[in-house]
Structure formats: C-alpha cells, structure tokens
Amino acid sequence: MSREIEEAQRLKKVDACISQAEGQMAAKDIYGAFKTIDTALRLDPTNQKLNKMMDNVRPQYEQAEKKRVANLDPKEKIKEQGDACFKDAKFEEAIKHYTKCLDSMSDKASELAIKCYNNRAACYKQLSNFDGTIADSTAVLQINPDDIKALVRRAQAFEACERYKSALQDVRQVLGYGVEKVGKASYDLCNGMQHRLNKVIQQLKN
C-alpha cells in the first residue's frame, strides 16, 4: 500500500509539472519550462509526452542561453565557467574560475562576488576543505549576515572541524528565522544538527 501511495504521488507530481510546463511554454517562459520539464523527467524519464516537450523546448533553451552568455560581462562569463565546472563535479576547476572572477573584482561586496564566495565555499565543502568553506562562508556573512546557505554551510564545516559551539551558534541563528523563511529542508537539517551538537557539547563537558 505504501508503494502504491508513493507511485500515485509521483504520477501526480509529473502531471502537475506537465501542466505547469505547458503554461510556461504558452507564456514563452523557456527557462521556466526547461527547468520544470527537467525536474519532471527525473521523476519519470521514459514519459513520452515529457520527452516530446523537452525535444521542443531544449533547442529554444540552448539558443536563449547562448544569447544570454554572449551578452554577459567578462567577469560574469568567468563565473559561468565556474558554474559549468561545478555542475560537472569538477570542483577544483570551478574553484579556479571563481577565484579568477573574485581577483578581477575591486568590489568584493557586490552581488557577483557574494555568488562566487558562496559557490566556491560549496566546492570547498565537496572537497572536504572545511577551512576554505568557513573562510568563504564568513566572507558572505560579513556582507549579508542573513544568508541561509552560508550559515548552514559554515555550521556543517564548523562541526566537521569539531568547533561545535561555533556550529551551534550558526544553527541557532538559522532556526531563529523560522521554517517559513529558511525552508523546511534547511530548518529540519539545522534542527537535527542542534540536537546532535547539544549532545556532543554536553558529553565534552562531562
């Protein structure tokens, strides 16, 4: 029965994605349609209707993406190269691009700089370079103290480095914003971390 319910929920999500994508295509929202169809295909890779829709949308998406990249600022192009490497799990290459982009900027507090710091921190985390993760997340938080991704990422890195009190401080800050602001996934993650960290800190005291 549990499997039947899960299957029904999966098919319901796929149908909802198809309806959403059809609306996005009608509104000429190619980026939105591509993302929605791509999400649905992960749930149902062999769905003929979805594959047909993707065959229609993909050329338009790729053309729009080429045009968008061609019009980017040179610094943004470097960041895009880093993003492409990150998607391909080439984290060390991605770090080089993000570093190059940051080195080319005089304003380290710009929106582009924050994205590079956040993305490079994510790369460092994947490579278990937790000091790098902490440094870049801290750079983001000095500019934007409410950046949820940076707080969660830094908390995880602090925990990995056994800096439990610092990790707990970041986790409590995230939880203090409430589930509506941070999202259920991040809230649940931090809630679990809080229980674990409290237990570890108490054990160390004893």
What does this protein look like?
By secondary structure, the chain is mainly alpha-helical. It folds into three domains: 2-70; 73-144, Serine Threonine Protein Phosphatase 5, Tetratricopeptide repeat, CATH 1.25.40; 146-206, no CATH class. It has eleven helices and no strands. The mean pLDDT is 93.
Question: Any key phrases for this structure?
Answer:
single chain, 206 residues, mainly alpha, Serine Threonine Protein Phosphatase 5, Tetratricopeptide repeat, 11 helices, 83% helix
Task: Quickly describe the structure.
It contains eleven helices and no strands. With 206 residues, the protein is mainly alpha-helical.
CATH fold-level label of the largest domain: Serine Threonine Protein Phosphatase 5, Tetratricopeptide repeat
Query: What is the element string, with H for helices and E for strands?
Result: HHHHHHHHHHH
Strand percentage lies at under 5%
Q: Write down the CATH class of the largest domain.
A: Mainly Alpha
What is the element layout, followed by pairings?
Layout: H1 2-26, H2 30-43, H3 48-70, H4 74-87, H5 91-103, H6 111-126, H7 130-143, H8 148-160, H9 164-177, H10 179-182, H11 184-205
Helix pairs in contact: 1-2, 2-3, 4-5, 4-6, 5-6, 6-7, 6-8, 7-8, 8-9, 9-11
